[in-house]
């Protein structure tokens, strides 16, 4: 295995030397002049029409439909639009993660408000096993970090015959990553990306400088007046190499209504002031689907979208206090936890401790990583001499990918 590519995985949580493009994006229909004569209210109405049309084209009768829900806006938008075509009783939803966190609780709240057939999949009671992780590795092309999926085998049992509606890169399409002040040259955009999107932050696991990997970010650019360089890198680097294999795990019939359609063309053709901060998309959703979009969101720290700045600041402080208590007192849950509290889980859960310990020792025995003592990282974490969960996740994921690539079987 290419050592440089291994180091990219250890730093960013995915292999940067990756050629596959399973879901190419089409940018040829972007036209920054086409909507310049329209007023904001006209753009809102047209955007609603385009989004409903995208759902309509993908909707198939006589199928069972499932929408994975989180605390964000993309999955909520899909669910709200689906309700224009079928009753809530015909739609399945599920939420996974840690009870008490924003993603988990808000997703459940939205399902309840909509009246769907909802299933909670708490990772706090899910038992991780090596065989399932090997299977997941193969279904994501052995490409990205593990432990950030729902209980896949259970989801297989529940929904493998359903149409799965994914909010895949919706946030990026509608402007969630549009920079306020875009850079003017590609190299600066690449360095900005490499600085911003490191997965392992607890220590220097890969022992490299950013410019060591810059040549991996290589693609055919388009005019930065159409799409900023920062967003082009996200589309061509992060989405293709990380998001696509990770989110669109093999084994399901996906619908991805945010991409490669009239809605995507519309959003990317807008003047950037309408995409900044997802402004127009939020206005569209509030007008089209007020019932669901008047509810809490993760985006506003658990407050509705139109909450005032003072309320948002108070809520932000409240959540920070909860986050601190979650670190220092038993029984409190950090509302910002994504997926699972791996810091404590690796130390306290038998399933996680066994998987992490055995795989890290197996990885050490390979002799691939000889510039840092990975067993020492594990021991320091277990002794509470630091929180190295991010490093342990990529190290364990790397070993599981290596096992999967060689046809590893349970002993």
Automatic annotation (TrEMBL):
Residues 67-199 form the Asparagine synthetase domain. InterPro entries: Asn_synthase (IPR001962), ASN_synthetase/amidase (IPR051786), Rossmann-like_a/b/a_fold (IPR014729). It catalyses: L-aspartate + L-glutamine + ATP + H2O = L-asparagine + L-glutamate + AMP + diphosphate + H(+). SUPFAM superfamilies: Adenine nucleotide alpha hydrolases-like (SSF52402). Pathway: Amino-acid biosynthesis; L-asparagine biosynthesis; L-asparagine from L-aspartate (L-Gln route): step 1/1. Its EC number is 6.3.5.4. Pfam families: Asn_synthase. GO terms for biological process: asparagine biosynthetic process. The keyword Amino-acid biosynthesis applies. The keyword Amino-acid biosynthesis applies. GO terms for molecular function: asparagine synthase (glutamine-hydrolyzing) activity. It comes from the Bacteria. Keywords: Amino-acid biosynthesis, Asparagine biosynthesis. This is asparagine synthase (glutamine-hydrolyzing). It comes from Heliorestis convoluta.
